[in-house]
Amino acid sequence: MIIREKLTEEREQLVSELVYYCSKEDRIIAYFLGGSLAKKNADEFSDIDFRIVLNADELKSAVLDALAKTFRQTIAFIESQRSFYAVIHFSNFVKLDIFAYYPEEIVPSLWLKDIVILQDTKDLLETAKTASSTIQYTLTQSDMCDYLSKYTAYLHEFYRRQFRQESNYCEHCTLMMKHIIISLWKGQEGHLPNDLGDWSKYEGDRSTLNSRQKQFMKNLTPINSHDVERSLHLMNKELLDTARDIVEGNNFQIEIDKYDSLLNVSFR
């Protein structure tokens, strides 16, 4: 049985074990934490986002294989493993996302602004983190076009699947449409949106949405199957209103009226 009250303690213990392992591994020259643990907004169910930097002549997959082998007694299963990362689930319900980098891949970025450096023998991480501190996210015209096109595509796909009575596919489409609306909200506020489909910190107690945004999403979760058209109308209006504000505020050359027409789907 998993004891919820012990999850945080067990995760901290695993982090300590990872740090000790890395300190004894000559192929690893630096390592750091990202994600919720680094930003100090984790709860007991948060993953360990652990990152390692290797000597340039080392093989990433070999180092990750060695790490997994060392911890094999406490690993429940490996969700996925590629040449440069692994997603590992431990028997105590703690999840580890580990990525491997080479020194030349550590460059200033939004992702490095809030990292917690655990070891940095060559000051690679500190230099990149300092340079990252001034980087701000800016929603581009290309981003806007992508979001509007994807939203429109999901709406059109919704109707196709609705006529085919494919309810789960319809639900998937509306989830993606709601996620795109949140992406526009975040972009408008100057915050980097999650990857499409990643709902982390968009819902629940750790949600970063404001009160109006939370209520809007709450009213549309789940979509009322008996009043779908009203829900779609509310979503379309929110998307277009937000898009117009962004386009006007940034002088983007995007014809919002074109999307208004594309979203006005009707059949006879």
Q: Main attributes?
A:
six-stranded mixed β-sheet; 9 helices; Polymerase_NTP_transf_dom; 268 residues; alpha+beta; single chain; 2 domains; Beta Polymerase, domain 2; transferase
CATH homologous superfamily placement of the largest domain: Beta Polymerase, domain 2
Number of strands: 6
Low-confidence stretches: none
| Secondary-structure element string | HEHEHEEEEHHHHHH
Count structural domains.
Answer: 2
> What is the approximate shape?
globular
| Helix share, percent | 40-55%
Strand content: 5-15%
Structural class: alpha+beta
Radius of gyration in whole Å, from Cα? Answer: 22 Å
CATH fold-level label of the largest domain = Beta Polymerase, domain 2
- With helices defined by DSSP (H or I, 4 residues minimum), what is the helix count? 9
Briefly, what CATH class of the largest domain? Alpha Beta
Which strand order do you get reading across the main beta sheet? 3-4-5-2-1-6
In round numbers, the mean pLDDT is: 96
Question: Main β-sheet: number of strands, strand sense, barrel status?
Answer: 6 strands, mixed
Domain Polymerase nucleotidyl transferase: 21-77
Keywords: Transferase
GO molecular function, one term: nucleotidyltransferase activity
Protein name: Nucleotidyltransferase-like protein
Q: Would you give an account of this structure?
A:
This is Nucleotidyltransferase-like protein. The protein is α+β, with helices and mostly antiparallel strands. The protein has helices spanning about 5-25, 35-40, 60-70, 125-130, 140-165, 165-190, 210-220, 230-250, 255-265; strands spanning about 30-35, 50-55, 75-80, 85-90, 95-100, 115-120. The protein folds into 2 domains: about 5-135, Beta Polymerase, domain 2 (2-Layer Sandwich); about 140-265. It is about 45% helix and about 15% strand. Strands 3-4-5-2-1-6 form a 6-stranded mixed sheet, with helices on both faces. Helix 5 (about 140-165) runs antiparallel to helix 6, helix 5 (about 140-165) runs antiparallel to helix 8 (about 230-250) and helix 6 runs parallel beside helix 8 (about 230-250). The longest helix is centred in the middle third of the chain and has 23 residues, at about 140-165. The radius of gyration is 22 Å and the shape is globular. The model has no long low-confidence stretch (mean pLDDT about 95).
